[in-house]
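A quick aside before the break. I want you to see a complete sequence-to-structure record at least once, exactly as it would be stored in a machine-readable document. Don't worry about memorizing anything.
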Amino acid sequence: MSGSAAVPLKPGPADGTEGSAEEKLLGIGAAAEKAGVSQRALRYYQQLGLLTPCASTPGGLRRYSDADLARVSRIRQLQELLGLNLDEISVMLRGEDRLAEIRLAYHDEDTSCEERQALVTESLQVHQSLRATVEAKRKGIEGFLSDLDVRIAKMQGLLEQMTAQSTAAARPGPPGQ
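That is the input. The structure line, written in tokens, reads:
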């Protein structure tokens, strides 16, 4: 999970990748390129707590897994699709992380029926909270669209008025004047 502490690794090859054939870990440059963001963005996401590289070398170099890159993709999706700012994204990611923990606990064979019920209740609350965040953004967008619709209608009316005036001015007057 990308929210866990980084695990020290041995240095890898010079191409910025390392790990087994199952999971190839990427250095920050290769990870940034693959994720379509800058190295600075990856560092900033880490500074804000949005992303924690799954590993680091003994020298402190960050290493990123496919799961880390999927999280970066989710961050970008929340920014671009929903227009969320980084604080709102943090709220969304914390909620999604908690839902993942709830799923694991729910499916644990040692979880009792009462604990499962409490987990489902908490899951419902987290989903409602996530929806409220998205709903607040939607209402803001709807208000912005309404304002644009008013401005568009105003400009259309002005253009129609101007067209009517210029058409009237272009008509020749009655004969004999």
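Two observations worth writing down. The CA atoms of residues 26 and 64 lie 5 Å apart. The beta strands are 7-8, 17-18, 25-26, 55-56, 62-63. We'll return to this after the break.
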